[in-house]
Specification:
The chain has about 230 residues and is mainly alpha-helical. The protein has nine helices and two strands.
Length: about 230
């Protein structure tokens, strides 16, 4: 099968699989930059690209720092989701979803496991792209906080969907049989909400809140400064 060229017997990627994934990532980034804000209302400025690149890099690095790791995938990381949410809060849903999409592919490269194309979408691509939905609440009072909560819930939805479709056989024998129907939800939201609580507490620290608000205002000012004339 052609698939065996890209995926090994253990569900990981072969060298060709990594090469294809990197090419897809590069193509998505290039396409996103080319298509983003075609109406001219916002320019993909150098500063904006730098913010997005730094946020994705920080998210990727902190995803390796695991406070707690579950046996069948999923972990509480050092606030890795927050950096993608920040991009969505600064630049909106479109940019947030694009950056989250690219970050999801990086996560797949970091810990690849392939059962089917839709499984990869649920566990990696759609789950992390969903973090960009935090941009829906930008501009509102406590928009970053509520946007982050929305992003965590949205990511958990796709992980749980993948759990129902592909991972029910991994349910531990000691898990209550009466709760079998909610196992993927309990499993995935256990680590997502744990990291979410830690992040929310951090976001409410006055010094952190003020620092992030200054960065947000700088991003908004930069956005206005590159707006095309009517």
């Amino acid at each position: 099968m052609i698939l065996q060229v890209f995926v090994n017997e253990a569900g990981g990627l072969t060298i060709m699989g990594y090469a294809l994934s990197i090419c897809v990532l590069a193509a998505c980034v290039i396409a996103g930059l080319a298509l983003a804000d075609r109406d001219g209302r916002e320019s993909a400025s150098t500063r904006r690209l730098a913010y997005c690149a730094m946020a994705m890099a920080l998210a990727y690095v902190t995803s390796f720092i695991k406070v707690f790791k579950l046996p069948y995938g999923g972990s509480v990381t050092l606030l890795s989701m927050l950096f993608i949410v920040l991009v969505a809060n600064w630049y909106g849903v479109r940019t947030g979803v694009l950056v989250g999409f690219a970050y999801g592919i990086l996560q797949f490269l970091q810990e690849p496991y392939f059962l089917s194309l839709f499984q990869v979408c649920c566990d990696y691509v759609l789950a992390f792209a969903a973090l960009g939905l935090a941009g829906l609440l930008r501009g509102r009072k406590n928009g970053l906080l509520y946007g982050y909560i929305l992003a965590v819930l949205a990511r958990g939805f796709f992980h749980s969907l993948g759990g129902y479709l592909y991972w029910m056989d991994y349910m531990p024998d000691n898990f209550p049989k009466s709760l079998t129907a909610v196992y993927p939800i309990v499993y995935n939201y256990s680590y997502l909400l744990a990291e979410g609580v830690i992040t929310v507490v951090l976001l409410k620290v006055p010094a952190v809140e003020q620092a992030l608000d200054r960065i947000r205002k700088n991003a908004i000012q930069e956005r206005k400064s590159v707006r095309m004339p009517d």
